[in-house]
Amino acid sequence: MSRTRRDNLAGALMMVPASIVILVLVIVPMAIIARDSFAVSDPLGGNLGGFTLENYAKLLDPVYAKTMGYSLGMAVLNAVVCTVVGYIVAYYIATRPARRQPLLLLLVIIPFLTDFLVRTFSWITLLGSGGPIIGLAKAVGIPATSLVPSQTAVVLSLLYAFLPVAVFPIYASMRAIDPSLREAAADLGAGWWQTHARVYVPLSASGLASSVMLTFVPTLGVFVIPVLLGGGKDPLVGNLIVTLFTEFRNEPLGAALSMVVLVLMLVTVALAGIVTRVVTKKRSA
């Protein structure tokens, strides 16, 4: 056997464990969910098998459509806010001296070192009636009681949770930008806004697209934050899926909603990939 064939065989064998894990933990469960999404719902709970499109038709009901619309709106809002703030943070880090950048990146990672549930409860303390935010507001004469539960608390917590995910792809794109381009733009009289609009934003478009994808996709499935900080008044689609499976025991409808969310996620990933490829081709042309 030639060396090339041995290397190819070794590479294929190394992929076997990962392929098995993906097959067992991802593909098979999603295939079961896809199958159940077309099953007939049992009024007493569970499913009766068979085939029907009624579950997908039910998702057009105003109750479910409203939750889907609200979830999409929150996901878009969080993606935009995280990307804008992440852009500013990434630019600041990328333009610092190289020896300081690892420390600044570590500060960005620190929130990820804490359990997600603990971080969420910390926002309850921070924004609650006895927290420092309300205390500061009262000290300056602003009447305030508590920001929990509220949509403001949900948005702030989502930003805090996903900001590190937004920073890193943008930072990676900015690291590849030649610093002399910024200096050349300044020499030609370009201001801060023009420099970013004509240099940094176009050249970091792939990172921006990745940031949008990495924040939009997980926001659709967030469960804890809307419950603890939003009081469950405006549930996201993740909360609705859990309710359908656990409280209503309507597995087919919950599976159908899960498949719709999965399709939205895949479309987002595909669009981000297209943008990245287009930008890469333009930069290499």
What do you see in this structure?
Belongs to the binding-protein-dependent transport system permease family. CysTW subfamily. Pfam families: BPD_transp_1 (PF00528). It comes from Schumannella luteola. It is found in: Cell membrane. With 285 residues, this protein is an all-alpha fold. It has a single domain (58-284), classed as MetI-like (MetI-like fold, Orthogonal Bundle). Helices cover 74% and strands 0% of the residues. The radius of gyration is 23 Å and the shape is globular.
Kindly state the percentage of residues in helix: over 70%
CATH topology: MetI-like fold
Instruction: Kindly state the number of beta strands.
Output: 0
Number of helix segments? 13
Low-confidence stretches: none
Family: Belongs to the binding-protein-dependent transport system permease family. CysTW subfamily.
Transmembrane segments: 12-34, 70-94, 103-124, 153-172, 208-229, 253-275
Subcellular location: Cell membrane
Pfam family, one: BPD_transp_1
Features:
single chain; 13 helices; 0% strand; 285 residues; mainly alpha; MetI-like fold; MetI-like
Topology (elements, then pairings):
Layout: H1 3-36, H2 54-58, H3 62-94, H4 101-109, H5 116-127, H6 132-139, H7 151-175, H8 179-187, H9 192-203, H10 205-220, H11 224-228, H12 237-246, H13 251-284
Helix pairs in contact: 1-13, 3-7, 3-10, 7-10, 8-9, 10-13, 12-13
In short:
This protein is mainly α. It has helices spanning 3-36, 54-58, 62-94, 101-109, 116-127, 132-139, 151-175, 179-187, 192-203, 205-220, 224-228, 237-246, 251-284.
